[in-house]
Amino acid sequence: MPAGSPRIIARLASRTVRGVLLTNHVLSGALIGALARRPAPAFAAGVASHFALDAVPHWGDWGSIRRFLQVAVPDGLISLAAMGTLAALAPAERRPAVLAGMIGAALPDVDKPATLFLGWSPFPWAVDEFHRRIQREASGRAHIELLAAGAFGAAALAALRRPGGLRPGGRRPARRAGLR
After folding, report:
1. Is 138 helix (H, G, I), strand (E, B) or coil?
2. Fewer CB atoms inside 10 Å of the end CB: C or N, the chain?
3. pTM value > 0.70
């Protein structure tokens, strides 16, 4: 039975799903990974950034499961494309950290498709409750999501293009004599 069929929509409509867009989490995770340069800290900072971004007012409050799916499915596909593109653009030595940052930033939203399609969340009740309570969603904020995506995407690309990135402690790599 196709995911968009009326029977699936009716079954899903009985579940409460709070919608959040994934693309900005992925883009911010790429930025974190590009700056962190090591996978473990990038993953941990990615997870933390997810909750920080969710606490900022953003687009949501879809009104119906059908509307949520109309937005969430393309957003999920855009997120996957962004992950693949940013991983491909990342220098080989920074790719593991970039992937870890993106995965960490996206991970807390695994509860959305799991709840939607399986009827349960993989996280403990306390985590789901915390995640639900910090959301600051409202309709009419699509422009905020688009501006944030542009800013996160540009910053991630700039961080990935920086030849040496930042050294620990926030210092730039030393310049060689005679080179600009």
Report:
1. strand
2. C
3. yes
